[in-house]
Amino acid sequence: MSQRLENKIALVTGAGAGIGEATSRRFAEEGATVIVTDMDGDAVERVVADITAAGGRADGRVQDVTDEQGWDSLVDAIVAEYGALHVLVNNAGIALPANVEDATLADWRKVQAVNVEGVFMGCRAAIRAMKSCGGSIINISSIEGIVGEPNTAAYNTSKGGVRIFTKSTALHCAKQGYPIRVNSVHPGFILTAMVEQGLASMPEDVSQEMLERLDREIPLQRMGEPLDIANGCLFLASEEAKYMTGSELIIDGGYTCH
After folding, report:
1. What is the pLDDT of residues 73-108, one digit of tens each?
2. Residues classed as catalytic
3. DSSP secondary-structure letter at 177?
């Protein structure tokens, strides 16, 4: 192992499964102490146990990213226990599929609360902790923050918000002279447990049609894996990306080339 994150303290939200879990594991492999958070306490315990069993360092916390006081308390506790926070991956997110006519205001607000407000509060808390020691903030957006889909109105809006909020935050940190880089990652269609469950819930002919459509529209002709996104996050967290801020890292098998 190259230990690209040796002695770094990293916080990954939504880390009980999928991209967050893969990123936590990858960071630990490269020497970071990873704070794994998720709403699912059992999932947090499993990921932490697996990382520890593999020789890595991890700590787990149950976290609701829509809780403002919870964000401040969590970051304060990390700094008090570990001395610093060097990396934040704002990964926690939800999707409630619906078009503009069918979406309810309650569902709309729920998506924005997790996907946008959670990222805002995470960045704000992390900046306060990183001002003196420096750090890297990585906000997980989506290709659906760049291109639209008719049945994901709230999700498109939230991920587009994360995209431009990242640039605003990066400019603020640079203008203030803070040694903090802020970038966004834009996954394409990634085969996570959530996606698999979604496909399984569809009628077989509908899920098959969707998979065939993705094969046609993704130039690499397959969905990505969580590790593909984790490796991108690792790059942005490491010193290899020291001249990147306000950037968009798109990892989508070429989908947005069209």
Report:
1. 999 999 999 999 999 999 999 998 889 999 999 999
2. 155
3. T
